[in-house]
């Protein structure tokens, strides 16, 4: 007996499927698995990350790749891009790691010059939608939103009554820290969700994107020992070498990733395979999937 | 502007409230907060951990404290206690850390003698209940179970149709790794949930308890680079000094903790405060809480 939770279970929880993992699948599934679906996928089921809306957060241990969602937070994303282009984050650090909640980065001393970036940016907690077509609704009930689903690879909530939509705080979501005032954030301090989805934050703070690779570099940071998980001493903070927009990075240094198109039939197969798991390991099928348990597969570009 | 998510938000996500955090609350809440409720709590709102059903997992960096739930998994808990009493885990290690999923420990080489412990224990994925009184139901809808709530501090699902109940895979839940056969687990390899609740595992594997303190020692482990997050080299594995039953540890070395009684009125106040957050930071109240976002407060014994 190999005392482990089987691969079928685990692949399900992976937000990044390494190509190598496919070879490790042990039991022949009695029902199609996510790994099978990805294996059978075609080029048209994937889209590349847009280099103009991709951030590389480089640290000693590796690269965190964040896809920005300007369609959900145009003003905040624009300010973040200004900060990044002007080198705001280079040499700063991880300032906080709060267990089962968030990792946060920025200027621990809050002294660095914002240069041409705005000091205050109105929060974009929700945004109006005029075209409902881009929203691929999940059939399953969700207590935090009237409707949930995906917009171009981003997990989102939607309220058809007032025609608003918003990005949800699933694992890996990236947002703009703020104080009590709704315009008190500007993107100079950002956080990523590293625990069970704090969906209570939805519609209360601006979500600007999602970590597509390298979230483990944030989630495995030592936890801060101060209040709220802030680090108390400078030497506890992990340094950020730089944050750059992929488009500004020489081609040879870029990480080419593809995200499964959430408006593809293939993605619906993934959702169904996760809603009712196949393989020999599962004895009980949930017949349900909660939004933040839906994987949006990512792979190295082919 | 202190670029941070406010304390009210954060306390909400803490499963362990350090006494010191209470002093750090900044804005005067316009509505009662969880911190206020805990501050106003009385001795009768708390219960101590039972030393006979508490495990201390000691590592170089600190202690992980697990409360066992024999009422949900009597055979598996009994076998784990036999293994622990006979020193099975002492000197073994963390064998796996899979990002946003689980940390797992046991014998990487699977060679250690089980001594008098059973090699196979039938899975206790669900258990029949005859007395419904102990279940404190959460009012909120849950897609993974007909009913959810708490039984003596443990998050649980329940199906009144067949009168079964089970512990749910919320953050910090501890379970018995198994292979494909339902009796292939024996407790010699255990895992703790360190990511977004993989509720699809509910009713598929035996949950035996919950980490009451020290989960950050498991969740911040470096991620394994092998398939399924297994460590590939012995030097990557964090050593376990020992696992002991609290009752077998000299009083002076014990960690005295109390858990808020989930059948108390005080706990209902906590749930409501988290369902609709108070304070100056929140602009939108969710009016909903998902089971795994309900904190079960833990404190140092007074």
Explain this structure to me?
The structure is a homodimer of 302-residue chains. By secondary structure, chain A is of the alpha+beta class. Chain A folds into 2 domains: 7-48 and 258-300, no CATH class; 51-255, Cyclophilin (Beta Barrel). Helices cover 14% and strands 25% of the residues of chain A. The first copy, chain A, has 5 helices and 16 strands. In chain A, the strands form 3 sheets. Chain A has an 8-stranded antiparallel sheet with strand order 4-5-12-11-13-3-2-14. In chain A, a hairpin with a 2-residue loop joins strand 8 (147-151) and strand 9. The longest helix of chain A is centred in the N-terminal third of the chain and has 12 residues, at 74-85. The first copy, chain A, is globular, with a radius of gyration of 19 Å. Mean pLDDT of chain A is 91; it is low at 1-29. At the A-B interface, helix 1, strand 4, strand 5 and helix 4 of A face helix 1, strand 4, strand 5 and helix 4 of B.
């Amino acid at each position: 007996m190999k005392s482990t939770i089987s691969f079928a279970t685990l692949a399900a929880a992976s937000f990044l499927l390494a190509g190598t993992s496919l070879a490790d699948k042990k039991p022949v599934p009695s029902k199609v698995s996510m790994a099978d679906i990805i294996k059978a996928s075609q080029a048209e089921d994937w889209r590349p990350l847009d280099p103009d809306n991709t951030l590389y957060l480089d640290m000693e241990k590796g690269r965190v790749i964040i896809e920005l969602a300007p369609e959900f937070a145009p003003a905040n994303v624009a300010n973040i891009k200004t900060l990044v282009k002007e080198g705001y984050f280079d040499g700063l650090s991880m300032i906080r790691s709060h267990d089962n909640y968030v990792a946060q980065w920025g200027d621990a001393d809050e002294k660095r010059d914002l240069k041409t970036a705005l000091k205050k940016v109105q929060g974009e907690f929700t945004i109006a939608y005029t075209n409902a077509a881009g929203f691929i609704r999940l059939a399953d009930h969700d207590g935090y939103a009237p409707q949930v689903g995906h917009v171009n690879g981003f997990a989102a909530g939607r309220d058809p009554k007032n025609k608003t939509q918003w990005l949800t705080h699933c694992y890996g979501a990236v947002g703009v820290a703020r104080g009590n005032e709704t315009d008190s954030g500007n993107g100079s301090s950002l956080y990523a969700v590293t625990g069970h989805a704090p969906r209570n934050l939805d519609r209360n703070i601006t979500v600007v994107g999602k970590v597509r690779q390298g979230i483990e570099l944030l989630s495995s940071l030592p936890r801060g020992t101060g209040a709220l998980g802030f680090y108390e001493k400078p030497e506890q903070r992990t340094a950020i070498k730089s944050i750059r927009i992929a488009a500004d990075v020489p081609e040879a240094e870029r990480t080419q990733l593809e995200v499964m198109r959430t408006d593809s039939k293939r993605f619906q197969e993934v959702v169904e395979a996760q809603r009712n798991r196949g393989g020999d390991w599962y004895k009980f099928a949930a017949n349900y999937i909660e939004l933040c348990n839906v994987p949006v597969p990512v792979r190295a570009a082919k």
